[in-house]
């Protein structure tokens, strides 16, 4: 779940203590300073019995929730231009150390989407390449860097938004790629790296040429994509999380409550509701009521909850106690390190163009 502001007013505190969400995700609207961010995460963790997935989207470039309180991280496309495995890994490690210092333990990165012409205006500098092997090369090193900082990563947006010419935050794209294209290109990073991914995030997009029997259903609500392809055909054993259920892409296909039920039915372990706490309650109540009245749905919820708890018990990153709030000196070191890394990227990418 997301929070509406930078604090936990009584209603938010009640929501956390009564619901015990699997995790929380913070955005720029929730983050005012390093001290406030660390304190907010600590308050949320104290309210919940199990280790929270304390999540943030930090890819670098346009998707960077901490740019205003520490320093902007270089974009994926800038880092990839250096063609340096060492710098790919350093990108993950520096981002990982930054988010970990503030109390996060999950970074919803890296992006596995192909850098195709159709999605260039939407995904901009977030993508690695149109070559799946390059995506695998970068993602492997970035994930290794995150892991070195005790931060869990996430592959997104399954099965791929490279062919999307619409923004899923607002609309539901129909991606016109064939099954053969999807399997050999879009899905190749998931096939190769599925054992290294604690989380995979599923996209709100349809694939009418690749999935003819389910062509109007977003992947995030599709058992064909999540259960049959991701879990059975690819063999993924980590946690599946839907993209935000407040996004226009999924709301074009279902109400928020229906989407919460359908993504669980399709094989997701969790779903994101990123902004309005009223919508968090509504989705939670919908799942709870359906589990109480439907004997086929209840075991799906139980199994999903068990998988979530198993990761929380087994992951070193999640079992670790929350770090102390960073001092102003420590924040300054993080800032300086990121700025130096950005300069290094600029220098190396300029050299690679010569």
Quick summary:
The protein has 354 residues and is α/β, with parallel strands linked by helices. It is 49% helix and 9% strand.
Offer a few descriptive terms.
single chain, 354 residues, alpha/beta, 4-stranded parallel sheet, 3-stranded parallel sheet, 15 helices, globular
Computed CA radius of gyration, to the nearest angstrom: 19 Å
Continuous helix count: 15
First and last CA, distance: 46 Å
The biggest beta sheet reads: 4 strands, parallel
**Secondary-structure element order, as H and E?**
HEHEEEHHEHHEHHEHEHHEHHHH
- Relative helix content: 40-55%
Mean pLDDT: 96
Strand content: 5-15%
Extract low-pLDDT stretches: none
Shape: globular
Structural class by SSE content: alpha/beta
- Total strand count, please? 9
- Report strand order across the widest sheet: 6-7-8-9
